[in-house]
Design brief:
CATH class: Alpha Beta
Number of helices: 3
Strand order of the largest sheet: 1-2-3-4-6-5
Distance between the termini: 34 Å
Radius of gyration: 15 Å
Number of strands: 6
Strand content: 35-45%
Order of helices and strands: EEEHEHEEH
Number of domains: 1
Bound molecules: coenzyme A
Length: 130
């Protein structure tokens, strides 16, 4: 398991460099090109400011850089904020089940990770130049 954190760049003046959230990525043992994503969290004091979308962008870039081809996660069916974050990032619900541990309906979401390393380099370079 690898845990990553993300820091505020320039969206919130005065908070530059502060860590605002984290996520974890594992590989599916039998299929290492498939990422199992979990532990996705914007720290409580930073929630509701649009940083969930920013954290997801950071995670997507990380997944591409790590060479994954597909990513999966689970989310409580009642978690509207996380589902909005996933939907905007192009993920879709691919299944659902009832968790006896959580006594709640859970959804499985997935996304293809398609961009090439060259394209990422272009994006990173153009962000740096801006
Ligand atoms: C889910 C989470 C990552 C969202 O991050 P956030 O920074 O609070 O959310 P944002 O401000 O970026 O908003 C993301 C979207 O959720 C919506 N949203 C935010 N809070 C919401 C709430 N309490 N109820 C419903 N929607 C909400 C926003 O309107 C936004 O949608 P939009 O862009 O379509 O308008 C964050 O709340 C969190 O860490 N929660 C606890 C851990 C968790 O649930 N992680 C996911 C595990 S699968």
């Amino acid at each position: 398991m690898t845990r990553f954190s993300a820091i505020i760049t320039d969206e919130i003046p005065g908070r530059l460099g502060e860590a605002f959230g984290c996520y974890e990525i594992d590989s599916l043992p039998s299929q290492v090109g498939v990422a199992i994503c979990h532990g996705f969290e914007v720290f409580p004091e930073h929630r509701g400011l649009g940083l969930g979308h920013e954290l997801k962008r950071d995670q997507m870039l990380r997944l591409r850089l790590l060479g994954y081809r597909y990513a999966q996660c689970t989310v409580l069916a009642s978690n509207a904020a996380q589902k909005a974050v996933l939907g905007r990032a192009g993920w879709s619900c691919i299944g659902t089940f009832y968790s006896t541990r959580q006594s709640a309906q859970v959804e499985i979401w997935g996304a293809e990770i398609t961009e090439t390393k060259e394209r990422i380099r272009e994006c990173t370079d153009s962000r740096r130049a801006a």
